[in-house]
Amino acid sequence: MTEPIPAFHGHRPPADVRQRYQGCLLGGAVGDALGAPVEFMSLADIQRQFGPRGITDFVPAFGKRGAITDDTQMTLFTAEGVLRGYVRGALRGFSHLPSVIHQAYLRWLRTQGEHPARDDDKLLSGWLIKHEALFSCRAPGLTCLAALRQMAALGEPAKNDSKGCGGVMRVAPIGMLYHALTGDDPERRSEGLSRAFALGCDAAALTHGHPTGYLTAGVMAALVFELLDGSGLVPAIERVMPLLMRREHHEETRAALERALDLQASDTPPEAAIRQLGQGWVAEEALAIGVYCALKASDFESGVVMAVNHDGDSDSTGLIAGHLLGAIHGLSAIPARWLEPLELREVIEAMADDLATVDRWRLEGGDPPARAEAAYYFRRYPGY
Fold first, then answer.
1. C-alpha distances in angstroms, 290 versus 84, 248, 252?
2. CA proximity to 149, closest of 110, 184, 183
C-alpha cells in the first residue's frame, strides 16, 4: 500500500536569512503603521498632540492600532507580482516581469473598490487577494490610481510626469527576490544587483513617469539587495551609485542621496536635517529622508521614530526607513509592542518567507512530493 504524501506548506528559510527578510518587510510595515496617523500633520501639531518626542507608539489610524496604509498594500502586491513572474518564467521559459507586476497592481486596484478595464478572473487568482483585510482604502495615492485606471497595455510606462513617492515606497520586494535568486557567486551578485535596480525602475515607471520618480525606486530596490547581504548602508550606496549615474536625468536623485550622506556626517540635529531634505511627498525627498534616518539611527526603533516625526509624508518615509533598518538590524530588533498589533502581520511574514526561499522552489514534474510542491506554489502564484 502506498503511503500518503505529506501535505506541503512551503519552505522555511534558515534563521539568519529569515531575520533579514522578515525584518525588512515587517520593518517597512511597522514604519508605515507608525506614520499613518500623522501623515498629514505638521511636526508642530505632532508634538503638540504626542509630546516633544513626537509619536513613538502606535495610535489608531483607519479605526485600529497598527493599521497599514496603501504603501504596504502596494508593497505586498509588488512581492506577489515578482513571485508570479518568477513562476511564469520557470514554467514558460519567459516572463516580462513589468507586465506581471502591472497585473498585480490591477489586483490592488480591485481592493480599492475599482474595476479595471482588464478585469477578469485572473485578477481574483492567487492567495494574496483572498485576504479581505486588503480590501480597504488607506489614502491611496492619486497618481497610482489615475495611472492604473488609464493604462493602455500591461507593462507600459505611465504617461505622466509625476515624481511622487508612490513608486519608490513599494519596491523593496524586488531587491529581496534578486538577492534570493543570485546566490553567493560574485558575478551573479553583480548581475542580480543590476537587475534589481532595473526592475525597480520599471516597476515604479508603471505609475510614475518622471525619471526621478522611477530612478529612486531603482536605488531603493538595489539598496535592499545589498543590505540583505549584511552590507553597511554607506558601502551599499557606494555600490549602487554607479548604476544610478549611468542613467539619464539622475542628477536629482544623486543630489538627494549626497545631501543625506552629508547631513548624516554633520552635527545638524535630525529635526533640522530632515527639514533640509524635504517633506517626502516627492520621490527623492522620501528616499533621502529614509536613507538619512537609517544612517543616523543606532537602532531600528530610534530610526523609525525619527523618520515619521516631520512635516511631510510620515508613513512613506517611515516605511522606507523601516525597510532599510529591518534589513540591517533584522527582525529581532523590531519592538514586540509594534509587531503584536501589526495588521496583516502573518501575511507579511509569509510573503517574506516566500521571497527568501524562491530559489528552492520545485515547480515542475518529478516524484509526488515534487508535484505537490509545484501545485502549492502555482496555487499561491499562478504563472499565467
1. 29, 23, 16
2. 110
The confidence band for 383, taking pLDDT boundaries of 50, 70 and 90, is confident
What is the per-residue pLDDT for 6? 63
Condensed to tens digits (0 to 9), the pLDDT of residues 278-327 reads 999 999 999 999 999 999 999 999 999 999 999 999 999 999 999 999 99
17-54+66-151+162-361+373-379: CATH topology is: ADP-ribosylglycohydrolase fold (1.10.4080)
What pLDDT, on a 0 to 100 scale, did the predictor assign at position 92? 86
Q: How far is CA 75 from CA 29, 225, 253, 283, 348, in A?
A: 9, 15, 21, 15, 10
Distance CA 69, CA 134 (A): 10
Q: Determine contact, residues 118/128, Cβ cutoff 8 Å.
A: no
The stretch 53-69 carries a mean pLDDT of: 97
- CA 203, 166, 316 angle in degrees (round to 5)? 125
| Residues in contact with 318: Cβ distance below 8 Å, sequence separation at least 6, in sequence order | 30, 31, 32, 34, 35, 304, 307, 308
User: Measured between alpha carbons, how far is 57 from 61 in angstroms, rounded to an integer?
Assistant: 12
Q: Which residues contact 363 (CB under 8 A, 6 or more apart)?
A: 87, 90, 91, 373, 374, 377, 378
Name the residue ranges covered by the structural domains of the chain.
17-54+66-151+162-361+373-379
